[in-house]
Specification:
Number of domains: 1
Mean pLDDT: 95
Number of strands: 7
CATH topology: Rossmann fold
Structural class: alpha/beta
Number of helices: 8
Order of helices and strands: EHEHEHEHEHEHHHE
Distance between the termini: 40 Å
Low-confidence stretches: none
Shape: globular
Length: 256
């Protein structure tokens, strides 16, 4: 039996693709046979990821943009369809967080920024991605990056916890609305992950490593590629009867 890549022949859009989980997903999805569209604000870093993919024999299109700008998102989705003729899948992974302050001391501008990137960004992406999928008439699959903060008060800022809870709710609502039209929508409940940002945080505040690690049953943090593997499966036909779920990729953090 011939076994093809999980995403063979699919066109997939990835946000937050310039580093961390998004960059790992871009490389993995391409290795699994997808044509990928890379979106983030940092064009130079996107170009570096695209070069890696090309050197490995894959195809990647760089379309820089900001998920908080609906015009940017509309342009990138249109660019994906122009480049590959369709949009089969999307990994809405862009996010932003800050160590921040207690709720009553948090500036409104910080709250708005957290909501803009983590919630409105997903809203903008799904709005235009679903339109493209409906226009093509062949269904599709969307995965949104949530967090353990989507189901628990983790100690993260209140605005971040609220935004990630909302991402899970938005995912379930979209899954319900479009399931009959062949579009699956799922989210990932991601635990502490060794992204570039996390590594910088641990360099600045080494004491944070212990709580990040101890909450996992596996007593470690995830590698970005481990999260990307879960996203790849959900985007693939092998998850054909999975929709509306919030899949934990957290080393057992939320199982307790």
């Amino acid at each position: 039996m011939r076994v093809e890549g999980l995403l063979q022949g699919k066109a997939v859009m990835i946000t937050g693709a310039s580093s961390g989980i998004g960059a790992a997903a871009a490389r993995l999805f391409a290795a699994e046979g997808a044509d990928v569209v890379l979106m983030a604000r940092r064009k130079d870093q996107l170009a570096a990821v695209a070069r890696d993919i090309a050197e490995a024999g894959g195809r990647a299109t760089v379309l820089a943009g900001d998920v908080t700008d609906p015009g940017d998102v509309e342009r990138v989705v249109a660019g994906a369809v122009e480049a590959y003729g369709r949009l089969d899948g999307a990994f809405n992974n862009a996010g932003w967080a800050t160590a921040g302050t207690p709720l009553h001391e948090t500036d409104d501008s910080v709250f708005e920024r957290v909501i803009d990137v983590n919630l409105r960004g997903v809203w903008h992406c799904m709005k235009y991605q679903i339109r493209a999928m409906l226009a093509a008439g062949s269904g599709g699959s969307i995965v949104n990056t949530a967090s353990v903060a989507a189901v628990l008060a983790t100690g993260a800022t209140a605005s971040y916890i609220a935004a990630k809870h909302a991402v899970v709710g938005l995912t379930k609502a979209a899954a319900d609305e479009y399931g009959g039209q062949g579009i699956r929508v799922n989210s990932l409940v991601v635990g502490s992950t060794l992204t570039e940002l996390m590594q910088q945080v641990l360099t600045d505040i080494p004491a944070l490593e212990e709580p990040f690690v101890s909450r996992s049953m596996q007593k470690r943090m995830a590698e970005p590629a481990e999260v990307a593997q879960a996203a790849a499966w959900l985007l693939s036909g092998r998850a054909s009867f999975v929709t509306g779920t919030a899949l934990p990729v957290d080393g057992g953090w939320t199982a307790r």
